[in-house]
């Protein structure tokens, strides 16, 4: 039997690996602090009293934990309907994400399974156009929304962006990994395109569709600029446009607690959604994950 030629790592190799590991941990810990510290400060500030915020100087944790900022938000619902904004955002983001999944799944099927002249050239053209800064579309998009009578309507946030090219690209790449032999076997059994799409393709790409739903929901929920343009009715605003309104109302430094409390409320759905769908998000990093089990 041939002897193994693997050379055990020496002290120098182990030292280099350990040093690299320590550097990686330090870098990751630093990045985690950069992301988590503002969130921790916002949550802690939302539980501080107005007096403590105004006179105690900077401190991460409150000296006395109070819930008066959240109570003030609820009691002031007639002036700033935070809970209504919360519901509006929930309806808009859920509707937008669900419709996005339907649209990009159909588009991905068309760009990978259906044959028509110029298919790849059309997709590459759309991909190139998507590289333009989105801000250049603001005025044309607003004119279209205004013409359709969608100003101050949830449709102004639900419909635009349903066919995001980035999501189509993600689904198309994932779908390309599904063996075509499955389609051919289904066709032999007499299945048409719709049946193949519904019974063969959709179950195979479920992980990436969940990721698309997650991305679309968080993107719609966190969208700040577009809602401030298409909404001026306070009752119909989503939470992000409402936060801008609160910033103007609570610009006084002593009202920082109410502003932080409303921001914390706005973070809850996306945080819960990410924690619930985290394993699907991680599986999407492997474009062939949909073919497993």
TrEMBL record:
Principal location listed in the UniProt entry: membrane
UniProt cross-references to InterPro entries, sorted A to Z: MetI-like, MetI-like_sf
Keywords: Cell membrane, Membrane, Transmembrane, Transmembrane helix, Transport
Transmembrane stretches, start-end: 21-41, 85-109, 121-142, 154-175, 196-217, 256-277
Matching Pfam families: BPD_transp_1
ABC transmembrane type-1 domain span: 86-277
Localization (cell): Cell membrane
Domain of life: Bacteria
Region forming the signal peptide: none
Membrane topology summary: Multi-pass membrane protein
Family designation: Belongs to the binding-protein-dependent transport system permease family.
Protein name: Carbohydrate ABC transporter permease
Organism whose genome encodes this protein: Nonomuraea helvata
């Amino acid at each position: 039997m041939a002897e193994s030629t693997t050379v055990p790592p020496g002290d120098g190799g182990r030292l280099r690996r350990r040093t690299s590991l320590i550097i990686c941990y330090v870098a990751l810990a630093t990045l985690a602090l950069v992301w988590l510290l503002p969130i921790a400060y916002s949550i802690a500030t939302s539980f501080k009293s107005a007096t403590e915020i105004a006179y105690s100087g900077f401190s991460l944790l409150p000296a006395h934990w109070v819930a008066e900022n959240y109570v003030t938000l609820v009691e002031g619902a007639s002036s700033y309907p935070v809970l209504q904004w919360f519901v509006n955002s929930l309806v808009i983001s859920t509707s937008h994400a669900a419709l996005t999944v339907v649209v990009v799944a159909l588009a991905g099927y068309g760009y990978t399974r259906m044959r028509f002249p110029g298919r790849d050239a059309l997709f590459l053209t759309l991909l190139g156009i998507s590289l333009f800064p989105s801000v250049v579309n603001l005025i044309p998009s607003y004119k279209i929304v205004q013409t359709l009578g969608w100003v101050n309507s949830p449709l102004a946030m639900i419909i635009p962006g349903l066919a995001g090219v980035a999501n189509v690209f993600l689904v198309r790449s994932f779908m390309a990994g599904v063996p075509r032999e499955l389609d051919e076997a289904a066709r032999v059994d007499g299945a048409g395109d719709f049946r193949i799409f519904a019974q063969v393709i959709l179950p195979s790409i479920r992980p990436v569709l969940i990721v698309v739903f997650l991305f679309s929901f968080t993107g719609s929920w966190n969208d700040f600029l577009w809602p401030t343009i298409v909404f001026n009715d306070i009752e119909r605003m989503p939470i992000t446009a409402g936060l801008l309104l609160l910033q103007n109302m609570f610009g006084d430094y002593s009202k920082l607690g109410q502003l932080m409390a409303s921001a914390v409320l706005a973070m809850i759905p996306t945080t819960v959604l990410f924690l619930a769908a985290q394993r699907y998000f991680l599986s999407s990093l492997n474009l062939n994950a949909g073919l497993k089990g």
